[in-house]
Description:
The protein is an alpha+beta fold. It has a domain at about 25-35 and about 40-75. About 15% of the residues lie in helices and about 25% in strands. A three-stranded antiparallel beta sheet has the order 1-2-3, with helices on one face. A hairpin with a 5-residue loop joins β2 (about 40-50) and β3. It starts with about 25 loop residues before the first strand and ends in a 7-residue tail after the last helix.
Amino acid sequence: KIKLCHHDPVSLFQPISILTCSFEVVSMNFISELLKLSEYNKILIIIDKLTKFSIFILYSMKITEIKTAELFFHYIIFKFEIPA
Length: 84
């Protein structure tokens, strides 16, 4: 029997980039359609990859790309004085 190779050839390892600044890389999650117990029923979660610092932003309107950017600038860039 002859076994055929069905995968791509293995390349050399690449170094993992080391983060040096807070909020250089973030992840964003949206939680929507929560119970309407107050005026807000949605949550935007922003997590800094370096420090694991999390910010929870409450909102109630339908969010667009532009509104997401506005919330990010208001709660991250301006609050932590990060140069844009």
